[in-house]
Write a structure and sequence with these properties.
It is a single chain. By secondary structure, this protein is mostly helical. The chain has a single domain, classed as Up-down Bundle (Growth Hormone, Chain: A), CATH 1.20.1250. Helix 3 packs antiparallel against helix 7. Keywords: Disulfide bond, Glycoprotein, Growth factor, Secreted, Signal. It is found in: Secreted. Belongs to the IL-6 superfamily. Pfam families: GCSF.
Length: 194
């Protein structure tokens, strides 16, 4: 119990003294390194899908599509708890898991749009589910509160009024997801330096 308190307490104030209790924990450092690599792999796969959307539909520059974006209902997962100034590991991990769940569902819209790349989308979704599971397991190991999501995706898929909106919506799903992954990656890297 005392060890659990020692491990949990520093998460509330990451700006204070170094987390010697966790920084020396080999299992935690191994978790961070493994999932930094995992996040990097997912980012590479998302970038590959972004290139496919660019090459296939000539949708490559976000600034050219901002007017169309206003007509679309594209979810953007928040990660404000993963920025350094307000960083809290427990809420950051929870936000990463919630975001992975949102993007997991949203990526299904790409399968219909890019049937020739359905395998890459499925691999990406599997990797996302595994990353979420890894984070949940680590949170449980540290005694942090976790939310268990139902295995069936309850979030409705984005709907689009035209094929063009579907293409642009897919572009923004990937762009938002890439930004989300960059923030998640920085948060995990930040934890390795504590």
């Amino acid at each position: 119990l005392l060890l659990g308190v020692l491990l949990w307490a520093p998460w509330r104030a990451l700006h204070g003294a170094p987390l010697t209790e966790l920084s020396g924990d080999q299992d935690f450092q191994l978790f961070l390194q493994r999932n930094l690599e995992f996040t990097r792999k997912i980012r590479v796969d998302v970038a590959a899908l972004q290139r496919v959307v660019c090459d296939t539909f000539q949708l490559c520059k976000e600034e050219e599509l901002l007017l169309v974006r206003q007509d679309l209902d594209i979810a953007q997962a928040p990660l404000e708890q993963c920025h350094k100034r307000t960083f809290q590991a427990e809420t950051c991990f929870s936000q990463i898991r919630a975001g992975l769940r949102i993007y997991h569902g949203s990526l299904a819209t790409l399968q219909a749009l890019l049937p020739g790349h359905a395998g890459l989308v499925e691999t990406l979704q599997l990797d996302m589910a595994n990353l979420s599971s890894n984070i949940q397991q680590q949170m449980e190991d540290l005694g942090l509160a976790t939310v268990t999501y139902p295995t069936e995706n309850q979030d409705p898929l984005p709907t689009f009024s035209s094929n063009f909106h579907h293409q642009v919506g897919s572009f923004f799903i990937l762009a938002n997801f890439q930004r989300f992954l960059e923030t998640a990656y920085r948060a995990l890297r930040h934890l390795t330096s504590l």
